[in-house]
Amino acid sequence: MCHSTDMTLFRLSLRPGESIFDQLVFAAKKAFVSGELETGQAFPSVRTLAAEFKIHPNTAHKVVQHLIQERWLEARPGIGTVVAEIPEPRRGDRKRLLGREVEQLVVEAQRLELDIDEVIEAIEDQWAKLKMPEEVSRK
Question: How large is the average pLDDT for residues 117-127?
């Protein structure tokens, strides 16, 4: 059973068996990539994250600090935490960033006895759902 929590900035569907920290970090990154959260936009405070997602404030703090460390967010004195301008990563960096997720996808696909074409089709379907706003406007 999944528990979904809506928040004005992004959506999180809690899944049992996966850490809340990992799920919240993933949901935030998904919001950055999909354009739901834009450069310079205020990111919720630790207190707001904890209250909205019903998580311990220490977990919320770790999430924010992790996203700052990975340069998805930046802390601006007197303003708060905002979405950072994400520089264009080099091709090798982009591929490396997906390493763990690709491995998990392949393991799960093999467990479900899917062939590569079915996996590619599922990826293409998801890709279309999450297209960046710039990509959509260019077409």
Answer: 92
